[in-house]
Specification:
- With 133 residues, the chain is α+β, with helices and mostly antiparallel strands.
- The chain has a domain of 79 residues.
- Helices cover 26% and strands 9% of the residues.
- The protein contains 3 helices and 4 strands; from the N terminus they run ββαββαα.
- A hairpin with a 2-residue loop joins β1 and β2.
- It starts with a strand and ends in a 16-residue tail after the last helix.
Length: 133
C-alpha cells in the first residue's frame, strides 16, 4: 500500500489488519445500528404519551400540598410517578399531576417529606395505593 511518497510495509496478513484501514481487499464489514430503545419500550412510550395528555387534561391543577392544610394553586404541567416509572409507567393510579416547582423543589428536593405525605411510595410495598385528593 502506498500513502503519499512512502511505502508502508505491513508484515501482517490481510485478515489481521484492522477494519478501519482504507482500500483493503476483502469483504466489507456490515455494521448495524443499535436501537435507542426496544420496540416494546417505544410502544409503551407512545401509550404513555397519550395517557399523560388525558391525565393532565383531567387534572389541570397541581395536586401537591406544601403543608397539611393548603394546596398549591399553580397549573399542573408535569406528571409525578409516585411508585417510579419502571413497571408502573402506565398505571395511572400511581400518577400525580404537579407543577414544575412542586415536582423538583418539594417532592424530589425533600424525599423524606414526600414519603411522609405519600408522594413517594416504595416500589416493593404491597400496600394499596391511596388516591391523591
Amino acid at each position: 500500500m502506498r500513502y503519499g511518497r512512502r511505502a508502508i510495509i505491513n508484515p501482517l496478513p490481510v485478515y489481521c489488519l484492522p477494519s478501519f484501514l482504507p482500500n483493503l481487499p476483502g469483504k466489507p464489514v456490515k455494521r448495524s445500528r443499535i436501537r435507542n430503545q426496544s420496540k416494546k419500550k417505544a410502544k409503551d412510550n407512545r401509550e404513555y404519551t397519550k395517557l399523560n395528555r388525558i391525565f393532565l387534561a383531567e387534572n389541570p391543577r397541581c395536586q401537591c400540598r406544601p403543608d397539611s392544610h393548603s394546596r398549591c394553586i399553580a397549573p399542573a404541567t408535569e406528571t409525578h410517578h409516585r411508585k417510579g416509572r419502571g413497571a408502573y409507567l402506565l398505571q395511572t393510579d400511581t400518577w400525580m399531576a404537579v407543577c414544575q416547582s412542586c415536582h423538583h423543589d418539594k417532592i424530589h428536593g425533600n424525599p423524606g417529606w414526600a414519603r411522609d405525605m405519600g408522594y413517594m411510595i416504595n416500589r416493593a410495598s404491597s400496600h394499596p395505593i391511596e388516591p391523591i385528593e
